[in-house]
Each structure stands twice: as C-alpha cells, then as structure tokens.
Design goal:
Belongs to the phage and mitochondrial RNA polymerase family. One of its GO terms (cellular component) is mitochondrial DNA-directed RNA polymerase complex. Pfam families: RNA_pol, RPOL_N. DNA-dependent RNA polymerase catalyzes the transcription of DNA into RNA using the four ribonucleoside triphosphates as substrates. With 1156 residues, this protein is mainly alpha-helical. Among the domains are: 168 residues, no CATH class; 85 residues, Orthogonal Bundle (Helix Hairpins); 110 residues, DNA polymerase, domain 1, CATH 1.10.150.
C-alpha cells in the first residue's frame, strides 16, 4: 500500500488514519472487518471506528478533489456506486442515473480495479453515501438536463454539426481528470434520441450505427425510442433506395408518403431480394432481438414515440420484415398507455412485493349508469368546437389581453366617487386614442433598433458558438428574427404594466422573457410539422364523445385515448413531441441576452406625447417649436431598493414613458393563456406530462404543480412514480376539470361597484382612501435609541401596509377583470395536484376556491331543478354562511332561516340601499349570492320546485386532518369534536379549542399575567382557527404565533398594538397545548411519525414513502387525509331531480347531503 501524505482522511468514515503503511496494516485488524467485494477483500469499519469523531462534508469532498490520480478517483466513485444500499440513500433523480454512471466509469477508466487494490485502505464502506458521489451525481444530472434541451434546440435550429463537435469534446473530457470533477458526462437518453431522430429522418444509417456503437462502448443502454428510430431509418432505406442508390442522405423525397399502411406494404422496393436488402433485413432482425432482450415491447412504445406524418409508415415497413404477420392494427383496447392498474406497482421497490389496490377492486364492482353529468353545458357540438377554435387561437397568440374594470392605480379611485364622475381633469377619449396611436408608432421605431441589435448579437454569439461553447445562439435561430423583436416589444409592454402593480427585478424579467421565447419556439415547431392540425382532428373526435349524455367509455381519459388511437391507425403525427423543457438556467440566459438589447439600445422621444397634446389643442406655436426637437431617453433603467431587509435591483420604466402608457390606457391587462379558464373542456390527464390546456404550459399545469414560477421542473423528484399505477387519480382530476362553470353576474356587478366607490374592508375589498406612498424614515441626531427604533418600526409597518394594500388591489383587479371578460361564457378549470396531493385549479387568479369573493363569483354552468327539498337546502346553506348556528341541527337551522327570510329578501332586492343585513355576516358575498338565489326561487312563476338553479350548496368537513388522526388513534373526545361520532347536534372543534384556551386564560389572568388580562374578550374562534387547521401540517410555535398575530391585527377593537407579539405567542402556546388535551392520541401519532422518519433517515439513510389506497406513492405524512376526497370523485353521480349533484374537493363538497 502506498501512502502519499503524512496523514490521510478516510472518505467514507471521515476520520484520520495513520500515515505509514505498516501502521495502517496494524490498525486494520482492530478497527476494520474484512468484506469480500467482487472477489476482492475490502476493509469494513468496525462499530468503534464508525463512532469516531467525524469531519465536515466539505472536508470529505475536498479530500476527494485533492486526489491526483484519475483512476483512483473513478475507483472511489465506482466502489461507492456499486454498494447495494447506496441507492436508497440518494435522491431519486441521482439514484436513477447511478447505474448508467457506474457503467460509464467502468468502461472509461479500465484501470479502476488496479487503483482500488492499491488504495483499498481508503475504501471503507459506510451506511451513508459519500459526499463526493452525491456531488458528482448532482453535477452530472444538472449537466444532462441542460444538454438535453441544448441538443433538441440545436437540431431544430440546424446547428447539428456544431452540436456533434461539442459532444465529441465533452466525451473526450469526461474520460479525463477535468471531466470527472465537472460531471460533463453525456448520459441522458434524450440527447441521443434527438440525434437518432435526426439520423432517422435523413435515412443516415452510417451515423445511426455509429451512435449505437458509441453507446455500447460507453456502457449506456439504448432506450426503446432509440431502437425505433433505428428501425425507422432502415425502413426509410428499404422504401427509398434501390440497388444503385447510396445508403447515405437520400436526395429525393420518399415515394408513397401519406399512403395508407395497407397499400404501403406492397411498395415495389419491398419486394427486392438483392444483397443490400438482405443486409438491411439482417440489421432489422438484430435490432429487434436486442430490444427484446432488454425487455422492450416495441409495439407498445409506439404510443409514446414522437411521430411525424410518415414515421409510422416507415416503422411498419421495417417491422413487417421481422414480423411478417404484423398487421397495421394498434387497438385501443389492447395497448393503452395508461388504462388499468397492474398487480404490482413498478414505482415501488422490488422488496415490497405484490401490492393490492382495494379502491380499484371496489370501483370495478360498482355499476355505473354511464351518464355524463357535464355533457350539454354547450348543447350544440358545433358551438363547442367553435369554442375550441377560439381557445386554440388564444393559446397560439401566447397572451390574452383583457380590459381592466378597475384603474391600475388604486389612488385614482376616491371613496364615494364613481368612475364616471371622478377626476375632473380626466383625459378625453380622443386624446387617449391619439396618444395610443403615437405610442404604437414609437414602437415601430423600436422594432427597427431592436432588429439591428438582435442581428449584431447573433454575429457575436456565432463566433463564441463556433468555439465549442454552450451559448444561446441556437435558441435565437429557431424563430424568424422579427418574432424575437415582437417578443421584446411585448416584454416592454409587460414591464410598463406590471411595474405599476409589483416590484420587478431583472432576474424575474429575464425569466419571463425566456419562458415566452420557449413557448413561441415550441408553437412554431408545432405549426411546422402539423401538430396543430392534428390536434383539431383529435379534439373533434373527443368533443363528440364528451357532449354525449350517455357515456360509451367509462372515463374521460378513455375518451381521449380513443380519439388518439383513431388517429394513430392512420399514421398521424403525435401531439406530444417530447421536446425537452428548457432549464431555468437556459431560460435565464436567453432572457438575459434579449433584455440586454432592450436595456442598452432602446430609447424613446420624451417630447412626442407633448406634441400630441398640443396638436389636439391646435396650439400651432407650441407645435412648431416642439416638432423641431427630439429628446431621446432610455426606455428602461435599474435602481436599488431596500426590500425585506435586502437591496434588490429593480427594473423601472422611464417615468415619462410610464405616464405615456398610463394616459393612453395601453396596454390592457395581459395574461398567459394558462393563467385563465378554458373556453372548451380541458385535455384529460392520461400521463404525467400533457393535459389541461391545448398548447400552453406553466409551473401550475404539471401533474404535480410547483408553488412558484421559478421552480426547476427537471430538478424535482415529485414525479418519481409510475403513471400506470395511479389511473384513479387521473380520473379524479379529469372529473373535476370537466365541470363547466359560469360567472355570477349580479355579484360581479356589485363587486365592481364597491371597488370603484373606494373599497370596503369589511367586504374584503381593499380601501383606497388609505393608499398612499409611505414617507421615508426621518432620523435626527437628537433622537434617542428608542425613538430611532420606534421610527424604523413605524416605517416598516407603513411600508408593509402599503405593499399589502397594493397587492390586494392587484389581486381584485385581476379577478374582477377576468370575470368580466368571461361574462355570458361557459368555461372550464383544469386541475393539478400540489406536493401534498391536494387538488387545485390551474388558473391562479379566478376560480371557485379561496376567499369569500372568489366563491361568490362563480356558479355551475349546468343547472338542475330544485325539487322538493332544494329550497330547504338553500336556506340551510344561508344559515351556514352566517356562522350563527354552528352547533344546531338542520331543523333548528331551518327554523332560524324562516326568522331571517325578510332580511335575506331585503338584501337580495336592495343590497346597498336596504338594511344591508348581508354585509354583517361572516361570508358576506356568498351570503348575498345565496339571498339572491332564494329570492329568485321564491319569485319563480311555477314555484321553487321547478326553479332551475345553478347555485352550489357547500358541505364542509370538520377539520378533515384531525378527523383522520382521531380515527387512527381511536380518540373518543377528539372524534366527538370533529363529528366522527353519532350525536344529536353537530360539534365545532374550533369552538372546543376556544373553550379550553379561554379557561386557561382566565386562570392566568386571575394570577396576574399581563398578557392574559389584555386578551380578555379576544379569544375568539376566528383568531385560533387557522392555527388549529394547520396543526396536521406540523405548524411550529413560531408559525402559529404569526397566524394569531395576523388575526389580532385585523380586529378593530383590539386596542393594545404593542401587545400583538406577546399575545400571539401566548395564544399559540395555549392553542397547541389545548389540541393535545382534546386529541390525546393525534399528537402522539404525529410524534411517532416523526420518530419513524428520523430513524429511517439517520439510521437507514432513506426517505419514507407511503403507498395509499389509490396505489400512489407519496412522501408526505399529512397527505393521508387527501385520499377519501379523491375517491369521492370516482363514485357514481346521483341523477335525481336535485340540484346538488356534484361532489367537490378540499373540504367543500358540492353534493347531495343524502348521498354522503
């Protein structure tokens, strides 16, 4: 054994071992045990050695970096990666690529075994993965994500040869010391699939064969798509070439393209029996044999293959030579991509064995009526297809512009003044029109400057790109130059609008610009290969199925798959081309390059708006003087601003240009299509990648949505499961998305009226009377420390209030403007899951979930007659909305509804001029909506029984999370509090907690505790409700304190503002303690779950995964109570004469009470 240094650190156990070889050999017997690994003796640490003092992870990684010998470095990684337990300790994304990495290292560093034998004293196994291995795998994964997108874009932009040179460069470096540390190893199959697709379309078998050989040399397994592309390449050769023609890059288009498959087989070239043809058939047989030996079903993989118009025909021409009896029949019933649940879950570890799915087995025994509850919301299928065409047109434009119903600046709205009569110096419509025309003319001059700057940028990037560097050059070559210029002009419009409503930093602007470029590139490529035309054909078939009341197929998923299959048999292009999404880094690079052109080059004429004004006023003297001058000013500039205790670079538009935009009322509000409801039924979920909107995608339209737009989808592990194991989850999402909605127009009009009159805090509408820019902090030398501290605190509070009011105004502006845009329209809301498995609509601004305003704005598009008991349920719902009878029976609630019916009718008929009873309720806007519905039912000519109602009646669970914990722990008192037991009157868990907290507060107040005395009369249900709800999420004491502080701050009668902090902390402690008093077992169960997770992570070094009743693996304990809500959507819908026919989720069930 050779030792290079005086001391060396053991990378696995991270301890210091002696320097001399003799001393190491002597200590091996005492601190190590011998383990046989691949026919070699490898030392293993003893327990005493493992308990020695550890060094930091950074030191361990630096030790690995300091190794000079490349084979020794590789041996270290290979040994670690070959351990049986290491994959359990890695992140899922790293565990997936680990086998390919180990295979690649073994083939690239053949001397690794010799290095292992020479330095085996360094290779001491450990139950945890080494830091070096984790760091290298992370670099490899990130590099391959970036290169996958770069490969796809390079091929699309025609930079194929340059990309091949770059791949060769990285391949050489990966076999050297530099590449081992940087992780520049090309392992992702999508990189090679992009190359193979290009070779297949060119019928270039020589290059395709070289690619397959390279994969074999590097120890990388070929994917099924690679085999299919190779078969397609040979099929093209069989079709195109005769004996005299070359086998490389055909010069003529293939004859017979577009012919039906049955006629395509009889092509004369297929009957050739010359030597070249026999060679091609042998190659085909070899490829098919290799694919089958790896367990691939090539016919099944045709579903997932990104096909172009002639792909399937050439694949069939090749496959029929191997399987002569293969017919052109790709039956939906035989081979759907996701159609049923298998007996075992392929996403689960193999040691789990066979997993049963009781929910799936039960659902298979349920006899459905096979009726579509959502059909005929748009009665005529032609109208539905017209709505599809309109939706497709909106998504092709990439943005939807909506006229705002409120001013962008809340300071322009004064209390008690209507929009029509306020602001005597308002700009005339004629002046607005001329200012807008002048602004559009100015933008035309910008386009010329931006086009020149864009071409100069391409020239600079081309030089860098030719030096084998990853640049944005291919990303800026896919579209015509004018398209990039248009995107930059739209970016300026968005900055002008958004900077008035929120803080914009340069990173956010660049990311948004990069995302728009990516969407435009994908759309351009779709149009080029005919995906949009194919989408129209598929959706036409689906719309006809969707609009039938009697369902032929059991789920919406099956309807969509049937439509896809009907087109597949005709050899049509596939809708999902599987283009690799750009990473955040690539989007930022593209956006930064275009943002630089705007920032450096773009100017505008400051005097042009003045000239327009004077021309309108016919002031000839001023017009003549102004028209001869031009004052150019930069369009954008950046400023530093303090935000949340840090300095940020904010992007600002020039004040003169911002004023120009504002006075011209341009641009209107602009939204990405994925931020708005759909005008046609969404595409059903059939896989993890493609559903919801027709073309648009964003962070919320993934199957597992992200919390914000800057997340990196490629670097997440949340989709690490087999889609074939969760068909019922797909069906639940599709059922929710298929529900049609309408806007509650009277409530919308009332909301707009309140907002334009200055807002009303009690009605959840921000008040604009207090909206003013907070003054700067005034500090003088004579001020004491406490005075300065108080001044800073008051300034922060003022800034916070200003930001919150501004944010609330923007939220209501978006919500009301979108609702106004969708008046008289039927719309649909695509749905996705969050990290907990809970379902949310994809549109963020306008949907049926959330605040009182949001829920009061929306009703079902398809109405049903109330029937005999419908009016009673409307009355009960009205009482529930008031929050006055939470512990009363339904009979008592009906009796109370009869006593307030006059107030309800007065609210419905005179909402703002009557007694305004609805404004005093807990949920005022939903209360007003319910009052109007009751009044309409009572005024119906044929009586309430025949009244067709679209109004949703809610059914809410009693803290559903605590319900599950009480059931798990057989907690009697807790079960009573959350209505799990049979009792005469409903219980209120939040009221129970308030009683316990108030009892303890009285004791503390009597003992002289100041904060308990201050809180007298303020321990209310609303104050502690959020903290109780979030207990099942593991809310911390700090989080609960902040929640309670926020509720106390909103109480107008809470006098002692300096007690907000102590009061929040005090009530948080009592609230969490009282939950443990009422739910004696729930807290113990939560603690036990935490101990299990800690044991698995610390001792076993793996995460905890839970297999739920739907066959879905997730890693979040509190997601356990989501499952029954999803199952609710899979039961048959009641179809009697009752309004309440639909079950919803997230604690609010729109369903028949009798069916619960």
């Amino acid at each position: 054994m050779k030792v290079q240094h005086l001391f060396k650190r053991c990378f696995f156990c991270k301890t210091i071992i002696a320097s001399s070889s003799q001393s190491v050999k002597t200590r091996t017997s005492s601190i190590h045990e011998v383990e046989h690994h691949e026919n070699k003796k490898i030392v293993k640490p003893s327990k005493a050695f493992l308990n020695a003092k550890k060094i930091t992870d950074l030191d361990a990684y630096l030790d690995w970096v300091s190794i000079k010998d490349t084979n020794t470095k590789a041996a270290y990684l290979i040994y670690e990666g070959s351990s049986k337990s290491v994959s359990k300790s890695l992140l899922s994304r790293h565990a997936r690529i680990l086998p390919s990495c180990v295979s690649y290292w073994k083939s690239s560093f053949p001397k690794w075994q010799i290095a292992l034998e020479q330095d085996d004293y360094l290779l001491v196994s450990s139950p945890s993965p080494s830091v070096a291995l984790s760091q290298v795998l992370n670099k490899i994964y990130t590099f391959n994500c970036k290169m996958s997108a770069f490969a796809d874009v390079s091929v699309a932009a025609g930079e194929f040869s340059q990309f091949l040179r770059l791949c060769n460069t990285f391949r050489r470096e990966s076999k050297m010391h530099k590449g081992l540390e940087s992780g520049a190893i090309l392992l992702e199959t999508k990189i090679y699939e992009a190359l193979a697709r290009y070779f297949a379309t060119k019928a270039d078998w020589l290059s395709m064969n070289g690619l397959l050989k390279r994969l074999e040399q590097d120890g990388i397994s070929a994917s099924p798509k690679l085999y299919l592309y190779a078969i397609e390449c040979l099929g093209r050769l069989l079709t195109v070439h005769s004996v005299q023609q070359t086998l490389h890059f055909p010069a003529v288009p293939p004859p017979g393209v577009g012919a039906p498959l049955g006629h395509f087989v009889s092509h004369p070239f297929l009957a050739n029996t010359n030597k070249v043809e026999r060679t091609l058939v042998v190659l085909l047989e070899t490829l098919v044999a290799k694919a089958e030996s790896q367990g691939y079903d090539l016919i099944q993989e045709l579903w997932n293959l990104p096909r172009q118009k002639d792909t399937l025909q050439h694949l069939y021409a090749g496959l029929v030579r191997v399987w002569p009896h293969l017919g052109p029949d790709f039956s939906f019933g035989q081979r759907p991509p996701v159609c049923s649940v298998s007996a075992t879950n392929s996403s689960c570890p193999s040691e789990w064995g066979v997993v049963s799915y009781p929910v799936e087995k039960h659902l298979e025994t349920v006899k459905h009526k096979m009726r579509n509850a959502f059909a005929c919301a748009v009665p005529d299928t032609k109208e539905l297809l017209a709505a599809f065409e309109q939706q497709l047109s909106l998504e092709r434009r990439g943005e939807v512009r909506i006229s705002p119903v409120l001013p962008l600046f809340p300071s322009r709205v004064a209390p008690g003044i209507s929009r029509a009569g306020h602001n005597k110096g308002a700009i005339s419509d004629e002046l607005k029109k001329r200012l807008r025309q002048a602004l559009l003319a100015e933008q035309n001059s910008w386009r010329s400057a931006l086009l020149i700057g864009f071409k100069e940028l391409l020239q600079r990037l081309r030089r860098s790109h030719s030096r084998d560097q990853i640049t944005v050059y291919p990303f800026l070559k896919i579209l015509p130059a004018a398209n990039y210029v248009d995107l930059m002009v739209k970016a300026i419009d968005n900055i002008a609008r958004d900077s008035a409503l929120q803080h914009l930093n340069s990173y956010l602007v660049c990311m948004q610009l990069g995302q728009r470029v990516e969407a435009a590139c994908n759309l351009y490529r779709m149009e080029k290969i005919g995906v949009l035309d194919e989408l129209k054909h598929v959706y036409t078939v689906y719309a006809k199925q969707f609009n039938r009341t009697k369902m032929v197929l059991p789920q919406f998923r099956h309807m969509w798959q049937h439509a896809l299959q009907s087109r597949l048999e005709q050899g049509a292009v596939s809708l999902n081309q599987d283009w690799t999404p750009w990473t955040s880094m690539l989007r930022g690079m593209v956006g930064r390059a275009l943002y630089g052109i705007i920032y450096d080059r773009l100017t505008f004429d400051r005097l042009r708006p003045i000239l327009v004004r004077h021309r309108l006023s016919e002031d000839s003297t001023t017009v003549e003087s102004v028209s001869q001058r031009r004052e150019q000013a930069p369009v954008l500039f950046e400023v530093q601003a303090e935000y949340d205790y840090e300095l940020r670079n904010l992007v600002k538009i020039h004040p003169s240009l911002a004023s120009w935009y504002r006075e011209a009322d341009y641009p209107p509000l602009s939204f990405h299509p994925a931020e708005l409801p759909m005008l046609c039924p969404p595409v059903p979920w059939t896989s993890l990648d493609d559903a919801g909107y027709l073309l648009s995608r964003n962070y919320a339209t993934r199957f597992m949505r992200h919390s914000h737009a800057s997340s990196e989808p490629a670097l997440e592990d949340d989709l690490d499961f087999d889609p074939a194991s969760i068909p019922s989850v797909f069906d639940a999402l599709n059922c929710l998305a298929a529900c049609p909605w309408r806007v509650n127009e009277p409530i919308l009009d009332a909301l707009i009226s309140v907002a334009l009159s200055g807002g009303n805090r009690k009605l959840s509408m921000p008040e604009t009377s207090t909206f003013s820019t907070p003054p700067s902090v005034c500090i003088t030398k004579t001020m004491t420390y406490e005075e300065r501290r108080l001044a800073y605190r008051e300034a922060r509070e003022a800034q916070k209030q200003y930001n919150e009011t501004r944010s609330l105004w923007a939220s209501e502006l978006y919500r009301l403007s979108i609702a106004n845009q969708y008046r008289d329209r039927v719309f649909w809301l695509p749905h996705s899951l969050d990290f907990r498995g809970r379902v949310y609509p994809c549109p963020p601004h306008f949907h049926h979930m959330g605040s009182d305003v949001a829920r009061g704005l929306i009703v079902f598009a398809r109405g049903l007659k109330l029937g005999e008991r419908g009016l009673d349920w409307l009355r009960i719902h009205l009482v529930n909305l008031t929050g006055l009878k939470k512990r009363c029976s339904n009979k008592e609630r009906l009796d109370f509804a009869n006593t307030i019916i006059d107030e309800a009718l007065d609210s419905a008929r005179n909402p703002f001029n009557g007694r305004r009873w609805w404004q005093e309720q807990e949920e005022p806007w939903q209360t007003l909506a319910c009052c109007r519905e009751i009044a309409a039912a009572l005024d119906h000519p044929s009586g309430p029984v025949d009244y067709v109602s679209h109004f949703p009646v809610h059914q809410d669970g009693s803290c559903n999370g605590l319900q599950h914990y009480a059931a798990l722990g057989r907690d009697q008192r807790g079960a009573e509090s959350v209505n799990l037991t049979d009792k005469q009157y409903p219980q209120d868990v939040y009221g129970d907690v308030v009683e316990v907290v108030e009892a303890q507060r009285r004791i503390d107040a009597a003992a002289g505790v100041p904060v308990a005395q201050v809180l007298e009369g303020f321990v209310r249900r609303k104050v502690i409700k959020q903290s109780v709800m979030t207990t099942v999420y593991g809310v911390t004491l700090y989080g609960a304190s902040e929640q309670i502080r926020k509720q106390l701050r909103e109480l107008d009668d809470f006098p002692a503002r300096e007690w907000l902090g102590p009061a929040g902390a005090y009530l948080a402690r009592l609230t969490l303690a009282s939950i443990g008093t009422i739910f004696t077992s729930s807290t113990d169960i939560q603690a036990w779950f935490g101990q299990v997770c800690e044991h698995h992570f610390v001792c076993v070094y793996c995460t905890v995964c839970i297999l739920n009743l739907l066959g879905w693996v997730f890693s979040f304990i509190h997601s356990v109570y989501v499952i029954p809500s999803l199952i609710n959507h899979l039961v048959p819908f009641p179809h009697d004469n009752s309004l309440f026919w639909f079950r919803f989720r997230l604690g609010i069930a729109y369903g028949s009470p009798s069916s619960r």
